[in-house]
Amino acid sequence: MQVFSALPPLSLYVHLPWCVSKCPYCDFNSHALRGTVPEHDYANALLADLDQELPDVWGRPVTSVFIGGGTPSLFSPRTIDRLLSEVRARLPLVPDCEITMEANPGSAELAKLREFRSAGVNRLSIGVQSFDARHLKALGRAHGSAESLAAAKTARDAGFDNFNLDLMFALPGQSTAEAVADIDSAIGHEAPHLSCYQLTIEPNTTFHHAPPELPGEEDAWAMQCEIYEHLAAAGYVQYEVSAFARERQQCRHNLNYWRFGDYLGIGAGAHAKITHPDRVVRRWKLKHPAAYMEHAGGARRIGGKHELTAADLVFEFMLNALRLREPVGVNLFQLRTGQAITPYLPVLESARDDGLLRWDGLSVSATDTGYRFLNDLQQRFLPDA
């Protein structure tokens, strides 16, 4: 049995699962919209779900809220305002709580964004993916180049000084010069935060069943290296595998994930991780929106749950923490896993000797080589390894 001397910070994730269309690379729990969004019924389900979650987190302050999807900006500002008001009535949000909402350029009309800002959303994450019309078409995106190029200005004009642009590279038929041009466009728009990640083919996606021709591994690595050089030269600091930010503009919600904090998850398919004084439990909700809405107010909303073993805790902590550029201290390991680090010294020392890890007895972080082969490094902490 684990014993936790302190509970981690707590975040809230809210999943709104509908999109205008399903992108061929997307493996998230998102559903192409047929007809209108059932906003009222789904909002009622979210609040009923949250009411069921409250006994596990009484009195714990919420440090961040993330409204993801899907395309949350398909919902009306009125519904988002209602949701956030009802969340505040149920949970104590810290005074400077970061409240992020995902948006696509095609649904980011200025007036609507201003209303989201008035409702309490104080950070946007905009799914630009590319500024190139050809690559947007290959990705099946609903917006075009002009909308991508206007996204940052629209966010600023709506009152958001804190926002992220999502970008992808190693796209079908993309050259290194084109990938770097996308990054340079984002830099030119002076986005406070950029997420930049390589397109990968995931199971149960259209691209998995009909794979496009992607740049080879070496070409993708060359793209990544040049992209990262351009970002560093422009003053963006890489603080996680795919996350780059100006000073003090890191995403606090995602940092809580990577530091192995706790989070409630409400909505179809949403996941939660909750620490109790003697155990850590993961659970997730029914994935299909119709089934979720039907059962959101009772126990049948739970799609599954899992109590983490001691070995699970160590692996999951390292799986997340090694994504960070910052050194992760032994004290955080002990707080989040409820264990001493001593039994894992042979793994840490072996990874250090192989050039994958920085380990000085007080903190741990991946080297540049460890970052390139992060999966191999993380697997060393698997329970059966």
- Sheet bearing the most strands, described? 9 strands, mixed
Number of strands: 17
Structural class: alpha/beta
Shape: globular
Strand content: 15-25%
Work out the helix count.
15
If you consult CATH, what is the topology of the largest domain?
A: TIM Barrel
CATH architecture heading of the largest domain: Alpha-Beta Barrel
**The named CATH superfamily of the largest domain:** Aldolase class I
Distance between the termini: 22 Å
Low-confidence stretches: none
Q: State the domain count.
A: 2
- Rg estimate, integer Å: 21 Å
Quick rundown:
This protein has helices at residues 39-53, 77-90, 110-119, 133-138, 145-157, 176-188, 206-209, 217-233, 252-258, 289-295, 310-321, 330-337, 345-353, 368-372, 374-379; strands at 10-16, 18-19, 31-32, 62-69, 93-103, 123-129, 163-169, 193-198, 237-240, 243-245, 262-266, 271-276, 279-285, 302-307, 328-329, 357-359, 363-366.
Strand and helix map with partners:
Blueprint: E1 10-16, E2 18-19, E3 31-32, H1 39-53, E4 62-69, H2 77-90, E5 93-103, H3 110-119, E6 123-129, H4 133-138, H5 145-157, E7 163-169, H6 176-188, E8 193-198, H7 206-209, H8 217-233, E9 237-240, E10 243-245, H9 252-258, E11 262-266, E12 271-276, E13 279-285, H10 289-295, E14 302-307, H11 310-321, E15 328-329, H12 330-337, H13 345-353, E16 357-359, E17 363-366, H14 368-372, H15 374-379
Parallel strand pairs: 1-4, 1-11, 2-3, 4-5, 5-6, 6-7, 7-8
Antiparallel strand pairs: 8-10, 9-10, 12-13, 13-14, 15-17, 16-17
Helix pairs in contact: 1-2, 1-10, 2-3, 6-8
